[in-house]
Amino acid sequence: MRKKLQEKKKQWMEWLTGLFARGKELIKTVREHMAELSREQELEERKIQALKRMIRYAGELLLVLFVFCALMQHVWIGQVQGASMRPTYQDGQFILLLRGKEYNRGDVVGVEYSAGEEKTTLLKRIIAIGGDVVSCKYGQLYVNGQKISESDHTVGKTSDIPAQTVPDGSVYLLGDNREHSMDSRSFGCMSCEDIIGKVVH
């Protein structure tokens, strides 16, 4: 009887040991699956984060492009050619022009000048605006009968200019290098519609 009980006990112990071993294997398998699932979830989260970053960067790039295009509607970048605006601007110097609707005396502007079929951009200073009377005698410039002092930004002597009234919507232009400039003394007043923009200092 005792021998049978011992055998029965041994069988139960073997069964419990086997069950415990299978339980350990099952737990190990579950842990491995959980770890793999966690890695997959982490990888998926990384993909989602990377996608979010790409979307954010794309949005920022589109915003930059939009702002750039908007600015280019109002900003023009050019390069000075020639010596007609010396000493204020030198040949080869890059300038930034801001498009606007109103321009004042003293503004340096870029204008589109047409000589026959050829078009070129000139850089000149506005001396008088629509309605002004401009003239020059013996090198002294007058606007509306008032002497204009320009020694701080001009070189050379200004040739005589017969008194004339600037038409509305037009400007009278001179280069700062008065003896080496093609300007309104040659081609007359320019329409404000031909102004590309004002130089931004």
UniProtKB/TrEMBL annotation:
InterPro entries: LexA/Signal_pep-like_sf, Pept_S26A_signal_pept_1, Peptidase_S26. GO terms for biological process: signal peptide processing. GO terms for molecular function: serine-type endopeptidase activity; signal peptidase activity. Residues 27-54 form a coiled coil. It is a single-pass type II membrane protein. SUPFAM superfamilies: LexA/Signal peptidase. It is found in: Cell membrane; Membrane. GO terms for cellular component: plasma membrane. It is an enzyme of class 3 (hydrolase). Residues 62-200 form the Peptidase S26 domain. Pfam families: Peptidase_S26 (PF10502). Gene3D superfamilies: Umud Fragment, subunit A (2.10.109.10). The chain crosses the membrane at residues 57-77. Keywords: Coiled coil, Hydrolase, Membrane, Protease, Transmembrane, Transmembrane helix. It catalyses: Cleavage of hydrophobic, N-terminal signal or leader sequences from secreted and periplasmic proteins. The keyword DNA-binding does not apply. Its EC number is 3.4.21.89. The active site is at S84, K124. Its main location: membrane. Belongs to the peptidase S26 family. This is Signal peptidase I.
